[in-house]
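Help wanted!
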Amino acid sequence: MANLIQEVKRRFGPEVPPLLGILLLVVIIFGIASPRFLSGANLGSMAFQLPELGLLTLAMMIPIISGGLNLAIIYTANMAGLTLAWVLIHFGGPDAGMGAFALGVITAIAVGALAGAIMGLVIAYIGAHPILVSLAMMIFLRGLGEFLTRGSDISGFPSFIAPIGHGSLLGVPIPMLIFLAAALVWHIMLTRTRHGLSVYMIGSNIRATEYSGVSTKRTLTLIYMMSGVICAIAGILMLTRFNSVRVGHGEALLLITVLACFLGGVDPFGGFGRVVAVVIALLILQVLSSGLNLLDANQHLSTAVWGLVLIGVTVVRAILPWMQHRKKGGV
Amino acid sequence: MRNLVRTYATETRLSIVLALLCAGLGIASGDFLTLANITSLFNNNSVNLIWAVGLLVVLIAGGIDISFAVAASVVQYIAVYFFAAIGGGNWAIGFAFAGLAGIALGCINAALIHGFRLISIVATIATFNAFFGLLMFITGGVFIYDLPDWWTSRIIVFEHQAANGTWSELSLPVAVMAACVAATWLLIKHTNIGRQLYAFGDNPEGARRAGVNIGLMQFVAFGWMGLMAGIGGLMQVNIVQEVVPNALIGRELDVLAAVVLGGARLGGGRGTVLGCVLGVLLVAVTQNGLNLLGVSPYAFKMIIGAMILIAISSSSLSLRLRVKREI
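Answered by r_m:
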């Protein structure tokens, strides 16, 4: 057992075993508290709910690792969703064909990438603070979306896109497959590529990274562009899941994505953080939410519990080294 | 004069932009430079300004607070129950209670940040979710209209009837806003604690070695933010005459943008009350002007977002150019 924990720590990072412990604990608690918790129906609905928050959390994660933040993720996703909706409606709404959908997806991703790239360029070349740049971009995109839609819903899409939001492949929900694929790409990008290494280095010390010959400006631009692309994928997924687009949809998720990153052990100052740990943190949040829902508590109680869990975990993380230090007889 | 301009570069620039904007709007729209419009501008932005000066103190001390708008909602709800329990209350009790409740909530943030060495953005995002979730869960999201009379009555501190019969008036929230702005100015500019806040925000470790009490600074900054959040919440009810649990949520980021526009720096050590007021006013005047010019309200946010993006970019750019020249 101890060997197994060591092995997990070595492969996935020191924050993974405690998070797995918490996950196991909440699953056991809700499994005992509610017989329906471990039923296939509940697990299935969890698997359909998680990907939306999951993709947005991945979009939040790399900017945080690089020492920044991207507050514009929700509205980038909304704008990408709107773009896809317009392309579909332009080609006949419910009668639009596969080609129109493919074109819509490509333009939606391009819009997401553009929004991210603009932020990245301002952050990298002008040196403004990422929180401010993405905050201004968020206000701008929200305004642009409200201006273009007048705050109303847009719906009326061809029926063949519904399976992307509701279908299953070999028993696994398609949204979940999209999320797992994105998480895998993110994991490989961060651990196996030069770009990933540069992201961690920038988060630790941007000046030292620049002096060591990494093009920090290009890397920063790319970071926010990738964040925008994954937002666009989340926006497309939201469109297919709700069969409509509305600016402001998912607004409440913004700070939850930051919470999920911090819960997953991403360093708020940048430089550290792993995809596997963040995915486990997302599972913990989803289990808490679904479990409380089954016990007839409402969504708002889960929001409160999420906040309290984040406080609890960060407090334990803060005092644990101190306690271990005392046990060893230090000062 | 040149020194003044150089020391307060952001404030000078903002004043010029604001003056040009006001002059332009005055020419473009006959309604802009009327007393009625200017007073309503102040009435409508008093709560934002009360919060803005509170947030300014936190930013100067090197922190950030996401939870204050939610804290204001929490204060509103517990105040409703408290006033019902004591059978009415009055303004004095109202201010004392809202202020203390706000300070208590601010101190929760400060305790987490100082006691457990949490980063302020992590701590306040966590308390944001905890406060908001618990508020919605416990109250069930009900709106409350049955409020004490003194709380919802309109109190006019200044009124004037123009020749054509239109009334212009300033109400109580504006007076409270003025008091809050003045108090914050005194705190950060003219007290020992204020100097320590700047020092702490600029360089926490340096300030600690110089003998600044770090814990006290966190409690002062977040306590002050809480005080302003509570008073702002009290005033918001006076304006809208109802208590709604999720009405204030989302305004924290708009206030943050306005304060930063006014020259406060994320990371601490910089920012003035004047700049903060100018930042909020610039956003407010832009919005008001677009309204008077008949621009669709749906476009406001877009234009303001673009404006903030340009302002942040240009100020960062000029800062960098100056640093380069000095080297």
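OP: Thanks! One thing I noticed: Strands of chain A lie at 154-155, 168-169, 172-173, 244-245.
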